[in-house]
Amino acid sequence: MLTFAVRRLVLAVPTLLFISFVIFMLLQLAPGDPMAQVPLTVPPEVKEKMRQALGVGEPPLVQYWKWLVQVFWIEPKVFIDYLTNSSTLLGWLPDTQLYQNELRVISWQTRSPVMDIVIQRIPQTLWVVGMAYVVGILIALPIGIYSAYRQYSVFDQSGTFITMIGFSIPPFFTGPLLIVIFSVQLGWFPSIYDTTHVVNDWASLKFQLSQMILPVMVLALQTTAQISRYMRASMLDNLNQDYVRTARAKGLSEAVVVTVHVLRNSMIPVITVIALNVPSIFGGAIITENVFKVNGIGQLLITALFANDLPMVMTLTFIFAVLIVLFNLIADILYGLLDPRIRYD
Q1: Residue 324 is assigned to a structural domain of this protein
Q2: Fewer beta carbons below 10 Å: N end or C end of the chain?
């Protein structure tokens, strides 16, 4: 298994390089000038110096090479310096001072390093998206298991109807609908997510949880709908297998048959859906974060697209590509852990 993981990580490097090259070249075709918002009173020679400082105006291959150096060489040095200087975990180590004021990936919109902005936004996205995904999985798995075990029952038919509705309704409709019902009409939850809120006591924690409920409900609804259907279908395939009849004939209790034998084999295809949905749930958060004004990664990407901030768009899309490749690897590794018959070495 270790050999397989290392081999896949090595193969992921050229894959990510190819993806980054394609994304970069596609963005080069998009219209956009970092000097478009500079006042007309600024002299042309000053604009040209500013353009050169941002790395614009050079051949595309040169710009791409500089981006690779900045992302894979300069940004890791900045991160290592942060770990040894400011982080709580490794702050006791001697300061490495690897970063020597080299040019980093600069946002055209804010004129600040892109990765600094991304790191500031990640906690807000993880609060909402991470919680929604965990809640969706915890709800979906029991629903799918029980629906398959009680096939065609009232619970199964009701669950099928509700999950189909949840899977069919897009977040840009569900979000405003929940805002109108629970914020405007009932006044139970805030409609706008306050990203400046700090949790330092019980009252602030209650407010944080209350403002997370609506965006988490929107994202968890689609997650629950999709995963529960996959879980139900996988359970039905295994409940009719010969090994299940053999286990029951041996006198094993129904709980042991379902939870130990059937559930473990049924989780193999579901793991793929769960792992590969992690990057896609970030994509779904793009809409949800804009509806509830969550200053996360999704809202940052939309803002960068409207502002023609190509360095920011390039970096965020590459991060999504890394997540897809990484969670593909995680899914393959979990296959071997769930099914002893699967061996990669």
Answers
A1: no
A2: C
Give residue 87's pLDDT: 65
Q: Please give the C-alpha separations between residue 266 and each of 148, 234, 263, 338, in angstroms, as whole numbers.
A: 11, 5, 5, 10
Look up the CATH number of the domain holding residue 153.
Answer: 1.10.3720.10
Q: Provide the 3-class DSSP secondary structure of residue 106.
A: strand
Do the domain assignments include residue 39? no
**Cross-strand partners of 113:** 106
Domain presence at residue 244: yes
Do residues 92 and 85 lie in contact, with contact meaning Cβ atoms separated by under 8 Å?
Answer: no
Domain that holds residue 171: 118-306
Find all residues with CB under 8 Å of 154, minimum gap 6, and list them. none
Residue found under tokens 């920011």: 312
Q: What angle do CA 297, 184, 221 make, to 5 degrees?
A: 50
Give the residue, 133 or 187, on which the prediction is more confident: 133
Asked if the model's pLDDT at residue 89 lies above 70, the reply is: no
Tens of pLDDT, residue by residue over 265-280, are: 788 778 877 877 777 6
Ramachandran region, residue 111 (left: φ > 0; alpha: ψ -120 to 50; beta: rest): left
pTM of the predicted model as reported, rounded to 2 decimal places:
0.76
Tokens of 141: 């798995």
Is 266:338 a contact under the CB 8 Å cutoff?
no
For residue 1, being part of any structural domain is answered with: no
Average pLDDT over residues 327-342: 71
* Number of compact structural domains in the chain: 1
Closest CA to 117 of 293, 309, 287: 309
